[in-house]
Amino acid sequence: MHPALKSILRWFDFGHLPDGPIRDTSTLCHELAYKMADSLPSNPELVAGLRKLLEAKDAFVRSAVLDVEGVKEA
Predict the structure, then answer these.
(1) Tens digit of pLDDT for each residue in 25-59?
(2) Between 20 and 30 A from 39 (CA), which of 9, 15, 29, 69?
């Protein structure tokens, strides 16, 4: 595995998150990231796509956190 690919995939780990919606949300993004990494050629475009997915994952997880905390509007 190319070092750049390995480097970005580590940010999709979810083992540190509590069980429930926050972890579930992160798990979905982890699964997609690894599916893309396994099925597409390792090149700069794959890394760029994963970087954008990582940004989206962070926003999705923040949304789940707000929901768990009972925040209706951010």
Answers:
(1) 999 999 999 999 999 999 999 999 999 999 999 99
(2) 15
In a domain, 37, yes or no: yes
Tell me the one-letter amino acid at 24: D
The tokens describing 3, both together, are 């070092």
Which amino acid does the sequence have at 34?
Y
Residue that wins the pLDDT comparison between 10 and 72: 10
Helix, strand, coil shares of the chain as percentages rounded to 5? 75, 0, 25
19: in domain: yes
What are the counts of helices (DSSP H) followed by strands (DSSP E) for the chain? 3, 0
Q: How many domains does the chain fold into?
A: 1
